[in-house]
Amino acid sequence: MRLSGLEGVVYVLPALAFLALVLLVPLGMTAGLSLTSWDGLGPIKWVGLSNYTALISDPIVVTAMGNAVVMTVFTLAIPIVIGLATAIVLSRITRRLRTLWRTLLFLPAVIAPVVVAVGWRLVYEPTTGLLNSLLRALGLSSLAKPWLGDFSLALPATGIVATWMEYGLVMVLFLAGIQRISPELFDAAKVDGAGIAGEVRHVTIPGLRYELLVAIVVTLIDSFRNFALIFNLTRGGPGNATVVPVLEVYRRGILHGRVGSASAIGITISVVLVLLVLGVLWFARRRDADEGSA
Amino acid sequence: MNSSPGGIRRGRMTVALAFVAAMATACGGNQATTNPTVATTPAATGAAPTSTAAAVSDREPNCQNMTTDAVTLNYWDDLNENLSDAGVAKLDAAFKAKYPNVTLNRTAKTFSDILTTEKLQASAPNPPDILITNGGYALLGPLVAAGLMKPLDDYATAYGWDKRFPEGINRQQRFSTDGKTYGTGSLYTVAPTATYVGLFVHKANLAKLSLQVPTTFAEFEATLAAAKAGGLVPLVQGVSEGWPAIHMFTTFENLKVPNDQLNNLVYHTAPASFDTPENVAAAAIAQDYGKKGYFGEGYLGKTAQAAIDEFNAGKALYFLQGTYFSAPIVQALGDGAEMILVPGTSGGPFSVTGGPGTAFGISSKSKVQDLAACYIDWRTGQYASELYVGEGGLPAMNFTYTGTSTFTKSVFDAWAKASTPKDAIVPYIDFAATNLLDFMSSESQQLVAGQITPQQYATDVQGQYAQFTP
Question: With contacts defined as CB-CB under 8 Å, which chain A residues touch B441?
């Protein structure tokens, strides 16, 4: 039975109202505030698009956007490679071992980012930290660095933590995907004389197309939503070496009394993310269409 | 002795100090009681000339215009600074014993919680009656400008707050009613404690190097070089949290930039700039020390607490930060540590960064403002201050320490030395503008690491400062 248009709307209405209340209303208010100058207490002054135009020449915002791109490598690209590799390995070991390893490898993904940050701070601590202690014990003192305090190492060091938090989700996603692929396809590949590499290339990866899409979208969003990690790990430091857009939203909106500018950054992040996700989906659909017509 | 169960760290909070000298002797009058460790200057001689004819005890609150109705006082408190939970409970119990009709409702917040939630709470329809705030243009100014804080001048006269505290402390809590002019006008908050930036000395290490406490800047630099040569970290630091890095600059700014210029920067009383040869010279010292490795290994990647741990473990000669970090040091080293001020050059400028810690103010929307004023009086008075000192804290009020701890005595002595020359106490520099704390934190990290030149630092900070107009 098919619902009439009106009936369908009635069913959707409660969810829509909830969505509007918790998402669309705040988003609309933020968009409105982004066109104003407001310190959070005093009068609100209309300034048009000047908050947005100011962002383009704001060196901290430019640095933050650049850092966000680097963080995408660590939150999206590397976790997908590691997640895929571990999923393939896990799919080829015995079931009992697989369950054990899957649980262990997935653990980082379920720990709260604040806890992760505090833990990794201890690992990276320059004098007593685990990493430097280990390096010194191995006679590699020259490699012991102030990881989170070094202007060129802090961002990659932070990125590695992001990778550590993210790959587990991707791995589980891929592992479920591999188990969904029909065993006949693997058998057929074997019969055709394909090695492991051939199987991965011709069966596994094509079979994981949708999981890959989900993984890209989720990790892409996560690479911009890293406030808890950055705030607790480095506060954007040293200098502005690890500052990211969401951290700047917090600083301006909550601490500096620059609600308009903070809102403009927030809206910009949202628009960029939506465009990127739409781009990914469009690309995937076009590939599907190409293959469908081939 | 001198321990603080709260475990204190963070921005200018905690432990504080009293101006000793001149003020102490200046107040004569009704003799205050003493306890075994603390003899006091008679505080609040101007208090309550009207209400009570009987001798006023400073062991119990003495409210004016006190209602007998059942009332509730909702107050915000600083979780770590000022006083431990147990200490506050003691004060509150005494308050309720005298005024059983009052219900005290405490909300204790961390320093960063105060910064992030105060504006929202203060502007809500039912804010707490007593707010605890940070000073300057960063937080108090906007609250005053929005009409959310009650001017306390009448209460100050009634309870004698204008005499209880040094004017150097009160000045940092004054604003014009439009919130635009800092340092003059009405009193808006009253601080229980004060803090300042100085130099913690590891006495055993000083002796090991056969050195004396430096009294000139040249001697100070000689001790740094000697410490470095002797395998110690000269001036251990841990600035990954950002704000501690600012004091690696302001310490030398205090010795290079004339005091009136520093006050003009913060109070906006006359045009002033960070981009001056004196500021550049101060920045150059910080950078030079960074290059020489005086701040220790990996100081940009570790917390202030980690630096304190190194200092306490005897790996450093000095720890450069404020009295807000006294508690963990005195817990570990006791009188093995000493607080001094970095000495200035002969005839050169000399000032010390310091001022009130987080301070109590009254919401303009409160319906129990008289009660709130009385509670603030109780929390900032003689008895409360004795409790602060007992926990290693330092009261904002005029207070003479006569206890036996040489460390605590050194903290009081250095504060007295700073406050004796007129205007030698200058406010925390980030009070100068709403957006300076974070900016100077990251800029200072870049400066000491040699990422930017001292001139670039001065130009950048001035650029950020110039964006702010009161």
Answer: 235, 237
